[in-house]
Amino acid sequence: MFKLRNKTKQPFSQNTKNLEEQQTILSELDENIKKYKEIFGDKSDFSVRYIQGDSFKLAIVYIASLVEKDILDQHVIKPLNNQLQQSTDTIDKIILSTNKIKDLTNQEDVIKHLLQGHSVILYDGKTMAYAADTEGGERRPVSESTTETIVRGPRESFNESIMTNIGLIRKRIKTPKLKVNKKTIGKESNTSIAVLSIDGIAKTEIVEEVITRIDKIKIDGILESLYIEELIEDPKRYTPFPTVFNSERPDRIAAGLLEGRIAILVDGTPVALLVPATMGLFLTSNEDYYQRYDISSLMKLLRGFCFLLSIVLPGLYVGLLTYHQEMIPTPLLVAVTGQREGVPFGIAIEIAIMELTFEILREAGIRLPKTVGAAVSIVGGLVLGQAAVEAGLVGQATVIAVALTAICSFTAPSYNIAITARMIRFILLLLSAVLGAFGLIFGLLFLLVHLNSIRSFSVPYMSPLVPFHKEDWKDLFIRVPWRYMKQRPDEITNDNQNRKR
């Protein structure tokens, strides 16, 4: 009833030969064009431009949305037409005026270069092709950063082109010691990334560790630098604190490179990564080095105090009014408790409701269009706070505490560390509501122990506090004059620690 059909297996050498035939560029031009149209689609942005003589035929294939048409016209098509006019019989050698020409011998390389924005020249009768660098398309120009604003300093920020971003860094660090290691990640996206370091300053073992972790990434696509950030973080220990620094400012990344850190640039995003990252890096603004040392020191102390206050203030407010009222001066205690007459909620619930309301308003202000986002967040906060006080739902001191906490959180130079502070704030609020000041102190001690256990590419997160490095304290809480900052950070720098003679 059933017939068994014998399947004859081809020898391994035969399979290999067929595979090579599929990968090798065919000598028939029309067959190559047909193959590429099947891959990209006949009605897609895949384009073909034929150039034909008496006894030869050329074709320029490219993806229209990825090439710079002026470069294609002036430096590829025009030179080929000029060669055609000089010799109508044959063109023995392709001569183009683009900055880069590469010989291709297989179909995989042709497709790869087409997707990178190159134009590929196919010659009828030859089993090879030529790739001309015509990468282009629409790009956002270099402009001022909207997330890291400063009063004094450079106004340039990265854009979505990785080559432009590398150039912005090279403009600031003009040395051949700046090494750029380019890689392609993503099975489907084929995203270009670049690992930058300064030879002789960055530690070799940290550079090798960064490259090793990047090489282990196996993923379909990389659309933003956060993909890389999460995939190269230490997977052994969870922490809400960011261990990879990110910035849109070329001067900030260049300053990190000069300290011995490693930068990671990702094509398609203006946000660059910097490793290893320590706690002090997230609380430092690049403007600290564009102002006088006394002003910068004052600003650094103010930011550190505000960051600590944004974490501690809600829990401290709840703990004092709930469990430790004897620690509050009597006139202040009478004023605060008098304002809370008739409030139906406990102090902890009252603070939690106001904090959640403010977080909702902040998130709504970010998601709304810029023209109305700021107005909604500010007006919404004032209206809701005033209405809640008049309705007797919250006390006036509670609104002041929540507003002061929010203002302090805005002083953090890094958005990532500000989000972490918002998360920890609710945990300390819960501990203070249950155990009072003892819960708050316990939470802070646990937080300190956790910070001491974090590593960013083997570098302690609390360096130079733990381990202690006296020289690095000159740029930690305050900034001493440049004439005294003679050494780079000890934990992240190679033997070349002296940056000033």
From TrEMBL:
GO CC annotation, single: plasma membrane
Domain of life, per lineage: Bacteria
Keywords recorded for this protein, A-Z: Membrane, Transmembrane, Transmembrane helix
Pfam families (alphabetical): GerA (PF03323)
Coiled-coil annotated residue ranges, if any: none
Topology in membrane: Multi-pass membrane protein
Residues spanning the membrane: 301-323, 368-387, 393-415, 427-449
Entry-linked InterPro entries: Spore_Ger, UPF0353/GerABKA_families
One biological process term in Gene Ontology: spore germination
Subcellular location: Cell membrane; Membrane
Principal cellular location given in the protein's record: membrane
Family membership: Belongs to the GerABKA family.
PANTHER family: LEUCINE ZIPPER PROTEIN 4 (PTHR22550:SF5), SPORE GERMINATION PROTEIN (PTHR22550)
Protein name, UniProt field: Spore germination protein
Native source organism of the sequence: Bacillus yapensis
